Structures are given as structure tokens and as C-alpha cells.
Amino acid sequence: MERNDFSVGSVWKHIVALAVPMTVAQLVHMLYNIVDRIYIGHLPGGSALALTGLGLTFPVVTLIMAFTNLFGMGGTPLFSIARGHRDTQRAEKIVGNTFSMLCVCCLFLTVFSYLFLKPVLYLFGASDSSYPYASAYLRIYLLGTPFAMIGTGMNGFINAQGFAGTGMATILIGAAVNIILDPIFIFVFDMGVSGAALATVFSQFLSAAWVVKFLLGKKTLFRLQKTCMRLEGKLLKEIVSLGMAGFVVSASNSAVQVACNATLRDFGGDVYVGVMTILNSVRDVVAMPMQGLTNASQPVLGFNLGAGAYGRIKKGIAFVTVAGVSYMLLAWLMLFLFPEQIMGMFNSDAAVLEKGVPALHLYFFGFFMMAFQFVGQSTFVGLGMSKQSVFFSLFRKIMIVVPLTLILPHMAGFGVNGVFLAEPISNFIGGTASFTTMLVLVGRMIRRNQGIVKGV
Whose C-alpha in 42, 115, 415, 428 is 20 to 30 A from the C-alpha of 142? Predict the structure, then answer.
């Protein structure tokens, strides 16, 4: 029997076995940027403005991640389904084609970003005061684009083979280096935001080197081979089609960040852009266990779809829903009870804390509803239902958050509060719509496939 066969044994144990190391890895990976924000947010003199400048780079970094997801998150579930069918040749071609497209795409993004750096940052909400900080960080950070895309995009293939511990090591190695180098470059060498970016580039290089080394080695079940790197149009179309959901999620996040930063700059000034930088950081950290859980369910659901084990798919969805909603309710309670302490981790400026605590309460209201969005999206992706996943990504972010962000500040005297209210409104509407539709469509798919099997 094939190693790491997700069609036998306990479904929830398979998901947890993948989720724990994957979540730890993702949380540690987030330290790449979170540690940067914490150190920069406590620079002596001008820390609030430096943090604002760092926040202005988020849309660019998120957009790079969007293209990483386009190929990485597109190839991984397709790879899992091929494994379920025991189609080794197709699985290895998916690995090779994904790697080739990540390499091509990272070169294009790096060149484009350097050519249009200044106009893009001002479009994304920079002011004359915050631009120097944003530019200093991004000019160095962009050097690590190839490492970031290859390390993150290809690491999913390690996890999808069941080597979640190795996938976690990918992140741990880079994050440990980043944590060590950050204070040295920022404070000892007095490099400020440039030092934070340089530490991140070094750490991303090590992570990428670890991933490639493993996929070329003897332990992997499916090796990265030169013969499989030649692009195949039909296969690439399938990868992009399935990865479009992950792309849209990140790209729409980038669009939301741009809308928020630009609106906050106009209605509240640079300090509110700094507040939003902290809120985004808190959301990323708090939501990561939920993301780890749903991401871990994808290869398990995909494998069981390929194996025709539909009852196990239902069990997997039920487990992830109950566990995810329970966790998000607890997280919401912690955010409500300890807002000052949580925000104080990122910045100690009195003005930032004064404006940030009320904003946090608004922004995270009903936070548990985001769990339904995560479950719906991840189930669609894991079962190869890319169109539905793309639609609900666009629906929540582009059709709800962005318009509300631009409109609410002008209504009923909301001002900056309108920007922070857009997020909870989108969670309630988007989460309900995504999850309900997922239940209906997955139920229909299972009944249809079971009917075909019985007919045969």
C-alpha cells in the first residue's frame, strides 16, 4: 500500500497530523514579516511612521504571494488528486511544471516592481513622509522574490506527500535566521527598515534551498525532474484554473489593503495607516491556525475524492467546521478582552494605541464568521471546484469589502470607522454565502458520483 494513504484510517487524525506541523510552519513563516513589524514598531524615534511605511509595502508583498498561490496552490491539490488515482507520471509533471512557472513569474514580477516602485507606492497610500521608509524596505525585499516564491510555492508538494514535518522545517530554518538577523541588522548595524528587509531575504534564500534540496533528494516520493519541467499547455491550464482561487484571495487582499491605506490616509492620516498595519498583523497571526487546519484538509479531501471515498469527505468537512468555528470564537474573545496588550506588542506610541483599540473592536466584530469562509474556500479548492472558489473570493473582498471601504467613510459621519466596519460586514455576508453554497454543491457532487458508481 502507498505510504501516507489518506483513504484509510481516521479522517480527522489525518487532517490534524498535517495541520499541526503545517500551522506551526505557517505561524513561524509569518514571523518573517511579523518580527519585522515588531522591531520596526519599537524603533527609537519615528517608530509609528516607520511602521506606516512598512505597512505600505503589504499590497506589493501580497501581490507577489498571489502569483505564488496561482501556481503553488493550483498544483498542490491537482497533485493530491493524481496521487489518489495512483498516477505517478502525472503527479511528477505537475511538480515540474509548477516549478518552471514559479521561476518565470518571479523574474517578471521583480523587474516590473523595480521599474514602477515609486508611482505604485504613492498609489497604494504613501505620503511624502512615509515613502522613504516604504521604498527603503521594498528595494531590498524584492531581491528575495525568487526565493520567496519558490520556497513557498513548492513547499506545498512536500506537505501533500505527507511529509508535514519536513515542510515545517522549511519554514523553521528561514524564520530562525530571520529572527536572529533582524535585531543585528536593524539595531546593531543601525540599518532600520533596510536591515529588516535584508534579514528577510537571507531567510527566504535558505528556505528555498531546503525545499529544492528535498525535492531533488531520495526521501521524496515524487522527485523534481528536469524532464518534467517542460511546460505543457493543457496541464498548465489545469494548474492555473485550480490555483486561480488562491490567486484571487491574495490579489483581492492586496486590493483591499490598497483601498484601506489610501482611504485612511485621506480621512485620518499616516497614523491610521499604521493602525491598520497592526490590525492586519493581528488578523494574520490569529487566523493562521484556522488557515492551517483548512489547508491541511485539502490534500486529505482531494485524495479521498480521487479514491471515491465520499463518506470520508463528509467527515472531513464536518470536523474542520466544528474545530474551526470553536477556535475562532475563542480567538474573538481574547481580542475583545486584551486589545491594549495585543496592540502594544507592535507599537507603544500613545497616539497609535488610543486610536487603535476602538478600531480593533470594530474590525474584529463577529470574527468567528471568517471560519465559514475558510471552510467553504478550502473545500472547493481541495475538491477541484475552482470556479466556485474564485467566485466567493471575489464576492467577499472585491464585491463587499472594497466598495464598503470606499463608501462607508462618507456616510453618516463614519469617517475612518467606516473602513474598519467593512471587514466584519463582509465576514457575515461572505462567510454565510460561501459555506452554504459549498454544502449544497458538495452534497450534489457526492450524490451524483455515488449514483454513477451504482450504475456501473
Answer: 42
| SS3 at position 391 | helix
End-to-end CA gap in the chain: 25
Q: Cβ neighbours of residue 318 under 8 Å, at least 6 residues apart?
A: none
| Residue the block writes with cell 501581490 | 63
Cell 495607516 sits at which residue? 273
Which residue intervals of 268-309 are DSSP H helices? 270-307
The residue type of 48 is A
Q: Among 395, 434, 120, which residue's Cα sits nearest to residue 262?
A: 120
21: three-class secondary structure by DSSP: helix
Q: What is the mean pLDDT of the chain?
A: 89
pLDDT at 1: 40
Residues in contact with 58: Cβ distance below 8 Å, sequence separation at least 6, in sequence order: 254, 257, 277, 280
DSSP annotation of 227 reads G
Residue 149: exposure state from Cβ atoms within 10 A (0-12, 13-18, ≥19): buried
Grid look-up 471515491 returns: 308
Contact between 2 and 159 (Cβ < 8 Å)? no
**Domain range list for the chain:** 11-455
Q: What DSSP character marks residue 400?
A: I
Residue 109, number of CB atoms within 10 A of its CB: 20
d(CA 386, CA 259): 26
Most trustworthy range by pLDDT among 30-44, 45-59, 441-455:
45-59
Render the burial of 82-108: b for 16+ CB within 10 Å, e for the rest. bbbeeeeebbbbbbbbbbbbbeebbee
Q: Which three cell numbers stand for residue 333?
A: 474573545
Cβ neighbours of residue 286 closer than 8 Å, sequence gap 6 or more: 331, 334, 335, 367
As a whole number of angstroms, the distance between CA 298 and CA 380 comes to 9
Q: Is residue 356 a contact partner of residue 414, using CB atoms and an 8 Å limit?
A: no
pLDDT digits (tens, 9 = 90+) for 320-358: 999 999 999 999 999 999 999 999 888 878 888 899 999
Q: Which residues contact 436 (CB under 8 A, 6 or more apart)?
A: none
In whole angstroms, what is the distance from residue 18 CA to residue 319 CA?
14
How many other C-beta atoms are found inside a 10 Å radius of the C-beta of residue 456? 5
| CA–CA separation, 284 and 160 (whole Å) | 23
CB 233 within 8 Å of CB 97: no
251 closest CA partner among 90, 95, 62: 62
C-alpha cell belonging to residue 110: 521583480
